[in-house]
Amino acid sequence: MQIDPLAFELNEQIRKTSKNAYACLSETGRQIYFPAGILTQSAEAKQKAKKFNATIGIALENHAPMHLEATMRYFNHLKSDEIFTYAPPEGLPGLRRLWKDKIVRRNPTLTGKQISLPIVTSALTHGLSLIADLFIDAGDVIILPDKLWGVYNLIFSTRRGGRISTFPMFNAAGGFNVTGMADVMKKETKTQAKLTILLNTPNNPTGYTPSVAECQSIYEVVLAQANQGSQIVMLSDDAYFGLFYEDSMKESLFSGFCDLHENVLAVKLDAATKEHFVWGFRTGFITFGTVTQNPELLYQALEMKLKGLLRSTISSSNHASQHIIENILKDPDYENGINEKFQILKKRALKLKRILSDSKFDPDWGFYPFNSGYFMCLKLHRVNAEVLRKHLLDQYQIGTISLGDSDLRIAFSCIEEEDLDELVSLIHQAVRDLS
Ligand SMILES: Cc1ncc(COP(=O)(O)O)c(C=O)c1O
User: Fold this and answer.
1) Which fold, 335-434?
2) How far apart, in whole angstroms, are the C-alpha atoms of residue 366 and residue 378?
């Protein structure tokens, strides 16, 4: 297929600033561009058309977005042009700056590092999908720990034809299996020049975040692979960022990947969804970081590529949600509010761990290490996870998630602290019924 001149220009901009990013682009990634169409002309008009602006496909009335009073009634603190009009495809500029400030504040080792301005997505699933469009071709490998969020299969394999290659997430000592990760990378490089690696910390489903030492080892194996000439896209899925309850790494892995090597393009995927308890808002972000002589040019070209993908899929993300997130990030109560909810979830995690550490459960189950996030995962010894899940539902009206034969995921984020004893006791009873 012939390449559009605008796409060609962007590709050249990427090639000149990062050979790695260029090599990692998928065919869609190479083809995509942001057309100089209605949005570009309308943005120009917004600056200059002070008399009449007849560009964009919305309706105005009395110089404000036309709307039904019945709709406006549901919004008390937003203006009509913060709700009804389109947001730019890449997101509200103020929100993007504030989110970047927040990322750097919460990941102090990013200070002074050259990362892009985050691009707004319709939350994290969408961000992953855009990144898959940009970098994954049929047959490309995506390396992941075997404890993973199942939707990755749909995003990377079903939609893009990629091949998911996993390694056991935990080693025999119950730590993050860095050696396993290095082994699968080595194995895959025999046939693949490009490696896409996805790490999700805090992890869904286990609730584990590696220690600082483990993260250091992870950086070392990726660096070694980059030094060997592999072209690497390093994805950090930070859906549960910030919910670190014990002695794990308390920053995103992105902090160490974004300036690791010129052959590593680091991508941080995060969202207000879980961090700010707004699951239905659909506001997420994509941030890039790599070693390059000209970060500005590179990030600008990658942003244009993403804008093309955004424009051709959802066009732009929800405007009102973006304004609300922008406002809460400026709210003087923001940090207190986040900390208050963090403490509630932390207490639940620690209490659940205390309850589960009773040796009376040993014959029936163990549990994967957990220190963060929304979830933990039981490893059942005697009963099948799906059989137990159904039994819990039918006999005890308790909902859990079965994963494979032996793993049962519990979202302690949904259970009040005072109910945890009863929850565990009933799950134990249910296991006993079956074994
Ligand atoms: C690891 C992980 N990534 C991404 C998502 C999706 O987040 P969002 O709702 O922001 O699309 C989830 C949601 O369950 C998740 O667990």
Assistant:
1) Aspartate Aminotransferase, domain 1 (3.90.1150)
2) 6
